[in-house]
Amino acid sequence: MTKMQKRGALILLAGLLLLGIALCIHLVQKKQDSMAGETAAILLQQLELDRPAIQPGPNVTAPEVSATPMPEKVYMGYHMLGSIQVPSVGIRLPVLNNWDEQMLKAAPCRYTGSVPSGDMIIMGHNYKSHFTPLHKVAVGDTVIFTDVEGIIYNYKVSAIENLHRSEGELLASEYPLTLFTCSPGGLNRLVIRCEKAVN
């Protein structure tokens, strides 16, 4: 085998090794996404079974800003605030009260703020089963937050932003509800700003 053939064989071997590593990473991410979807589905089902049968009409909107804390319920060790829906892209997920890396693997989480104070920010992983569909959201789409007591808060998407991950301080805003997730690769944040829906 010539020196050039050896070099070619080494390059081919390195390429196959990198391809194998990429495949392993893809399979791990796919498994995490699947597990995240299953956990979120179980939590959402439990929340909906346990939530009071309060069914206000579709035009019920959030109350005026107040200092009232948000109610929560605990299921399977997760502290839940309610659920988030974006019907136009098929999102219907539970929302956990606090976030850390482990909680984010289960469901979207409150990042800061609250519904009563009119400044809630919800973050979620860019899993297909969680917030990947946010990349298809359009201005004017409906967003619905339902708390653990069955009270419905209607919002409309009013702005869509892309922020670099170093611009975390820009997540806070005057909008009553903000949703965000990572872009593919994690360098940017897709930020969905929502206003209260008008009756």
Would you mind describing this structure in some detail?
By secondary structure, the chain is α+β, with helices and mostly antiparallel strands. It contains two helices and nine strands. Strands 1, 2, 3, 4, 5, 6, 7, 8 and 9 form a nine-stranded mixed beta sheet that branches. It starts with a helix and ends with a strand.
**Strand and helix order:** HEEEHEEEEEE
> Residue-averaged pLDDT, rounded?
82
Q: How many distinct beta strands? A: 9
* Backbone shape: elongated
Short précis:
The protein is an alpha+beta fold. About 25% of the residues lie in helices and about 30% in strands.
How would you summarize the topology of this molecule?
Elements: H1 3-50, E1 73-75, E2 78-86, E3 91-96, H2 101-106, E4 109-112, E5 120-123, E6 142-147, E7 152-164, E8 177-182, E9 188-196
Parallel strand pairs: 5-8
Antiparallel strand pairs: 1-2, 2-3, 2-6, 4-5, 6-7, 7-9, 8-9
Identify the notable features of this structure and list them briefly.
single chain; 199 residues; alpha+beta; 9-stranded mixed β-sheet; 2 helices; elongated
